[in-house]
Amino acid sequence: MSQSQVWRTHRQYAATAARFTADRWRKEAERRSALRAERKPLVRDARRALATARAVDPEGVTSLRHRAERELRTAKRRVPDPMWLFASKTAAALGAAGYVWLPQVSVRVWVWSAVAVVAAVTAFAVWVAVRERDTTGLKPTAEESALLKRLQPQHWRDHAEQRGLAGTLTGRPRLTEAGIVCAVRLDGTWTATKLRGAEDHIRNLLGARTSLRMQVKAGKQGGWAELILRTRSAADGDDLTWTPERRSLGIDTVTGEQVTVPLGERLLIAGRSGAGKSVASRPLLYDASEGATNALVIIDLKRVEGRLWDHRARVASTPHEVIDVTDELETEMLDRLSILPKGQDTWTPTPDRPRITVVVDEGAEVMTAADGVPYEVEAGEGKTRTVKRSALPALESLARMGRAACIDLWWMTQKPTINDGIPKQIAPQIGVSICLAVRTPAEARVVLGEDAQAKGWNADELPVPGVALIRDGKRKPDPVKVRYMDKSVVIALPDRTPWSRSTAPTVEAAGAPTLTLVKDTAPATVPATDGAAARVLKAIETADEPVRQKDLVTLTGLSKGAVSKAVKALTASGAVVRTRDGSLTATRGDESAAA
Ligand SMILES: Nc1ncnc2c1ncn2[C@@H]1O[C@H](COP(=O)(O)OP(=O)(O)OP(=O)(O)O)[C@@H](O)[C@H]1O
């Protein structure tokens, strides 16, 4: 054996001995503090009893007084010293004994004692070194230590009956990365479901705080249940900074799994101010703006978040821009739907006509500001007139029909109340809800469903910022710790050409059949890709008499904006003319429509 091997072996022995000693010390300290917690109330009671006895018998002549004094002495004796006091007393006693006895000790004993002391000091030093290097072990917090103690079978057995849990007995509790897990043995009168119903009794027995999340599920064997106390998060210790390599939305605090939200869903992102909506949306906005077949449109009247993305996304930040972009999106959607090949349910995104994710940041503000916007429209004979426009109808139709056209609406709001923060026409269309901390259970219900509270989706109890519940029909109400993507990271992302319908190519590029309206005399071609124009033209052609523009909204089901744009295009192309009273009529006979 080489010298280094000998040294290593010694070190291992010393480390084992040190760990053993530390373990014993910890256990003894825990035992003592548990006994103290249990017995100190008895001392208080005995003191009170003695005070009463003194009042009754100030002279101390009756047995009542003597018994009370005896009981107080016994109660005090039964409370053990805390470990530090016990160790100090022992050390002091040994010191005193040594002072008296050591002068008589022979030199040989001195030498061996010195060797023992050196060995003990070395062992202690090694233990400290080993302990500091061991960062992987889980160390219980004060709360966890208390719960672990009360989950011990002995403590449970002593208190189960008085807490209405007679017939149940805990196994050995374990501390895991997601909290404390403990098996519970059930006698014939109990089931896991019944134990779940007795959650309050368990909480009382354990002295657990009300906000501590507790789960009871069926155990791995019949006759057993599993009790989980979520004292910690499975995401603890993970680096939650977003990077292109760590692209998930966040980490499930219960299972520790990466959580992602795929594109192609109508999304609601809600949470009170400062809950972390903008930060939570960034990894999603990255996905929505990345790749050749994805394009991002942001409607942000606050001009804060949208500005960060304007090198990768089309951003509308004034009411006028909002009307323009929603018109364009609606036209694009109708266009895609009108040329969708038979038998195909959804548009296939291509680099030319990509999936478009439309994000409405602070929906409540958009609904107020982009309503009644003064907008100039064609009034015939080269004149224009100003009408009041609203972006809401176009947004509603995007929410209703956009999915098939691969145009997905994401609604973000800090006021998750129907009509105030989320339009009532849009709310039912939401497929996936991401809910950060909200103010009230009522808000949580609007975002996560009427059954939210009953099923444990308690978004009003979430911590802030950056913790979310995601309801997509598959996930459980496990909180998700959201990755942090800093503004500087967004700004540094590579540029992408923002989407615009004027840059969108012709329909042929998408491999779909072409709708062409042909007129003999130029300029006779209605924009070939414009489904809204085709609808409007058809409505005018099939009407018995000239139609007023406002009636076209009802006839076609399009928004005012889309009708206005279509009429403008049709009158410019000559396919439609405006009569003196402002009604519209088709220049019929010359045109043919071919699909
Ligand atoms: N996942 C996260 N991790 C760490 N810190 C976060 C996280 N999310 C948010 N924060 C912190 O909270 C602050 C507020 O976040 P954010 O701006 O996203 O909130 P918000 O809900 O969008 O607020 P508002 O509605 O007022 O705009 C951030 O500046 C950041 O410091």
TrEMBL record:
<feature type="binding site">
    <location>
        <begin position="271"/>
        <end position="278"/>
    </location>
    <ligand>
        <name>ATP</name>
    </ligand>
</feature>
<keyword id="KW-1133">Transmembrane helix</keyword>
<dbReference type="InterPro" id="IPR000835">
    <property type="entry name" value="HTH_MarR-typ"/>
</dbReference>
<dbReference type="Pfam" id="PF12802">
    <property type="entry name" value="MarR_2"/>
</dbReference>
<protein>
    <submittedName>
        <fullName>MarR family transcriptional regulator</fullName>
    </submittedName>
</protein>
<dbReference type="InterPro" id="IPR050206">
    <property type="entry name" value="FtsK/SpoIIIE/SftA"/>
</dbReference>
<dbReference type="InterPro" id="IPR002543">
    <property type="entry name" value="FtsK_dom"/>
</dbReference>
<dbReference type="InterPro" id="IPR036390">
    <property type="entry name" value="WH_DNA-bd_sf"/>
</dbReference>
<keyword id="KW-0547">Nucleotide-binding</keyword>
<keyword id="KW-0812">Transmembrane</keyword>
<feature type="transmembrane region" description="Helical">
    <location>
        <begin position="83"/>
        <end position="103"/>
    </location>
</feature>
<keyword id="KW-0067">ATP-binding</keyword>
<dbReference type="InterPro" id="IPR027417">
    <property type="entry name" value="P-loop_NTPase"/>
</dbReference>
<feature type="transmembrane region" description="Helical">
    <location>
        <begin position="109"/>
        <end position="130"/>
    </location>
</feature>
<dbReference type="InterPro" id="IPR036388">
    <property type="entry name" value="WH-like_DNA-bd_sf"/>
</dbReference>
<feature type="domain" description="FtsK">
    <location>
        <begin position="256"/>
        <end position="445"/>
    </location>
</feature>
<keyword id="KW-0472">Membrane</keyword>
